[in-house]
Design brief:
Layout: H1 2-18, E1 26-27, E2 33-35, H2 40-61, H3 64-73, H4 86-102, H5 106-122, H6 131-134, H7 158-176, H8 180-195, H9 210-221, H10 224-235, H11 250-253, H12 273-290, H13 293-310, H14 341-358, H15 361-375, E3 393-394, E4 400-402, E5 405-408, E6 411-414, H16 423-431, E7 440-443, E8 446-449, E9 455-461, E10 464-472, E11 479-486, E12 490-497, E13 512-514, E14 523-526, E15 529-530, E16 534-536, E17 539-546, E18 550-555, E19 560-565, E20 575-580, E21 583-588, E22 599-600, E23 608-612, E24 619-631, E25 638-649, E26 661-662, E27 665-666
Parallel strand pairs: 8-12
Antiparallel strand pairs: 1-7, 2-9, 3-26, 4-5, 5-6, 7-8, 9-10, 10-11, 11-18, 12-17, 13-19, 14-15, 14-18, 16-17, 19-20, 20-21, 20-27, 21-25, 21-26, 22-24, 23-24, 24-25
Helix pairs in contact: 1-9, 2-4, 3-5, 4-7, 4-16, 7-8, 7-9, 9-10, 10-12, 12-13, 12-14, 14-15
The structure holds beta-L-arabinofuranose (FUB) and zinc ion.
Length: 669
């Protein structure tokens, strides 16, 4: 009976959704895009074979699963540190579900079922699910407060846990069609909607994500209350009277939680960078689903602010360690850069949604920059070691092990298998297998090719089945080919993103620029013939009747670029970073005689590029002659000597031991 009711609910939901306003552009679902490349496929496979099992294992060995068991028994003592540790299980289930969708695995499915049974027992009668209280409400976690929700605005994370539960449940249901986790999530969401809303309780959730999660449940069920509650939470921001707006301290003035002003009046990225990224993503969802333009204008302005003033050259955000937050405009220190991996993940979520709203390539340019650099630097090539923070510079690797990693002062210098606060590893578990979903998007008879990853994809365009095959050796080479195989001749617009980096643009703002501009132009051929094309919103528009086997070749000229920062970022003055294609490079001690902090790359130095298949799972390295400033230990005199210089992709640093690393290098002594 329960199952029939559920099926009816989903059916009604789907019909209702068909009439709803939404993003006019839709991503092609990750399960329809099969990758067979050398860059992402191995990462997705290692996520499946190493990262997912290691994460589940750590959820067990660190007590996260035990917390649920104890909550099920309503007795015991929370045996981990944070009230949000439940989410590591949810995120791992989410990632494992994405993996199951394309790689069936009965054992994994059964294991997840066993966890869901434990989670179900931990859920209270009315749907409340939060082990930090349920284990023993009289001795709830100090961040949780004595009563449910009373500290939600601050640090309880009750709605944060709920949000991750919803995200996991949506992924699990869509991948497996099983409703066991979804039912738990819906019961919890119904409770949340009964507690919060107009004329009910109000709060600006202390750590956003419940909003995005509610939207996912709304998409599955069509239940409007979920969308309304997501919107309600967004609109609850900026209403709390207890902050001190005169204070500079982001905790005291509310900006840490993006709660100092109503969202509609916000125009600067502020506060905790993961919270912010999840909020802006949810605002995009709600703006798309409701057509609320004032919400849209706010995130447009905030996006502009991030990209012109608050993003590191390798796509990371959240410069400040105190509060894990955005700094002031142009506050992008290298020696103390924080750059939480989760903030990079949130930035990918947000930029994808901005693209779906606006259809402009600049959002995917930013997404690509983050994805290929400051995000995957967060995971080691072994798939089971992680950076929580992503350093911009390491000048002496005096390594100390702390609860949160191996640090040298403020900077993590070696990856760790897990952290006491282990949000980043489990966030990577769910992000990596979803990457095929960022490759294509579609709006009626328009297909957007956003990421360049070899593989094949199936879509329905103008009512015909169309297969699109990509072949390339991206990100090491800019020669791309797309073979179009419609079941029968089909007319549609194929829009190929022409990345900013291929058009002399380092980032869609004046925050970074290329010093050397390229002469070569992007060449596009169809069936061997060069064609002239127009560019719309950053995409080359290829509109024709496509026949089986039509082949598009796109040549994105790839050369080594020197990147310079806006003068206002004073500590990058006189320095260059190196980029080729979407990849930002760094110098690491191991390739440069043990040190990188004394390297100079003269303005006239020419680079050679070499693909080294055996190095760091296959990378292109940059080589030139640089200069090094050396000080004689006896005479204390300095001399400048010419030395061979090698740069590797930033994402691959710290896979060969601990030592110095630099992204920005001086051009003169
Ligand atoms: O608060 C939950 C998570 O823990 C945040 O997203 C991370 O920044 C870490 O503080
Ligand atoms: Zn994190």
């Amino acid at each position: 009976m329960k199952t029939i009711a559920f099926i009816l609910m989903i059916a009604v939901g789907l019909i209702a959704n068909a009439q709803q306003r939404d993003y006019s552009i839709k991503a092609v679902d990750f399960s329809k895009v099969k990758l067979n490349d050398h860059f992402w496929s191995p990462r997705i496979e290692i996520n499946r074979t190493v990262t997912i099992p290691a994460s589940f294992e750590r959820c067990e060995s660190t007590g996260r699963v035990t917390n649920f068991v104890m909550a099920g028994n309503r007795s015991g003592k929370l045996c981990t540190k944070y009230p949000f540790d439940d989410t590591d299980i949810y995120k791992t289930i989410e990632g494992a579900s994405f993996s199951l969708a394309v790689h069936p695995d009965a054992k994994l499915l059964a294991y997840i079922d066993s966890l869901i049974t434990i989670i179900a027992k931990a859920q209270e009668e009315d749907g409340y699910l939060y082990t930090a209280r349920t284990i023993n409400p009289a001795a709830a976690h100090p961040w949780s407060g004595k009563e449910r929700w009373e500290k939600e605005r601050e640090l309880s994370h009750e709605l944060y846990n709920a949000g991750h539960l919803y995200e996991a449940a949506a992924a699990h249901y869509l991948a497996t069609k099983k409703t066991n986790l979804l039912n738990i999530a819906l019961k919890n969401a119904d409770l949340v909607c009964s507690v919060f809303g107009p004329a009910k309780r109000s709060v600006a959730p202390g750590h956003e994500i419940v909003e995005m999660g509610l939207v996912k449940l709304y998409r599955i069920t069509g239940k409007k209350e979920y969308l309304n509650t997501a919107k309600f939470f967004i609109e609850a921001r900026g209403k709390y009277a207890g902050y001190n707006s005169a204070s500079d301290d982001s905790w005291k003035n509310g900006s840490y939680w993006q709660d100092d002003k109503p969202v509609k009046l916000q125009d600067e990225a502020e506060g905790h960078a993961v919270r912010a990224g999840y909020l802006y993503s949810a605002v995009a969802d709600v703006a798309a689903l409701t057509g609320d333009d004032s919400l849209l204008h706010a995130i447009d302005k905030i996006w502009e602010n991030v990209v012109t003033k608050k993003m590191y050259v390798q796509g990371s955000v959240g410069a400040k360690g105190d509060g894990e937050r955005y700094g002031k405009n142009y506050e992008l220190p290298n020696a103390s850069a924080y750059n939480e991996t989760c903030a990079a993940i949130a930035n990918v979520y947000w930029n994808e949604r901005m693209f779906l709203l606006h259809g402009e390539s600049k959002y995917i340019d930013v997404l690509e920059k983050t994805l290929y650099n400051g995000l995957i630097s967060g995971i080691g090539l072994d798939g089971k070691s992680f950076f929580y923070t992503n350093a911009m510079q390491v000048e002496s690797a005096v390594t100390k092990q702390t609860a949160n990693g191996f640090t040298d002062g403020n900077v993590e210098v070696a990856r760790s298998g897990w952290f006491e606060c282990s949000c980043c590893p489990t966030n990577l578990v769910r992000l990596i297998p979803s990457i095929p979903g960022y490759v294509y998007a579609q709006k009626e008879e328009k297909v957007y090719a956003n990421l360049f990853i070899s593989g094949s994809s199936q879509m329905i365009i103008a009512k015909n089945n169309v297969e699109i095959i990509q072949q390339n050796n991206y990100p090491w080479n800019g020669d791309l080919s797309f073979t179009i195989n419609p079941a029968k001749q089909t007319k549609f617009n194929f829009l190929v993103r022409i990345p900013g980096w291929a058009q002399n643009e380092a980032i869609p703002s004046d925050l970074y620029q290329f010093k050397n501009t390229a002469e070569k132009k992007v060449v596009i051929k169809i069936n061997g013939q060069s064609i002239s094309y127009t560019i719309e919103n950053g995409y080359a528009v290829l509109n024709r009747q496509w026949n089986k086997g039509d082949k598009i070749e796109v040549n994105l000229p790839m050369e080594v670029k020197r990147v310079i920062a806006n003068k206002v970022v004073s500590e990058d003055n006189g320095k260059v970073a190196l980029q080729m294609g979407p990849i930002i490079y760094c110098a690491e001690w191991v390739d440069n005689n043990g040190r990188t902090s004394n390297i100079i790359i003269p303005a006239a130095a020419n680079f050679t590029t070499i693909f080294q298949p055996e190095l760091l799972n296959g990378i292109t390295v940059l080589k030139t002659n640089g200069l090094k400033v050396e000080t004689d230990a006896v005479t204390n005199k300095t001399e400048t000597v010419t030395v061979p210089f090698v740069a590797i992709p930033y994402y691959a640093w710290a896979n060969r031991g601990k030592g110095e690393m630099a992204i920005w290098m001086k051009e003169k002594k």
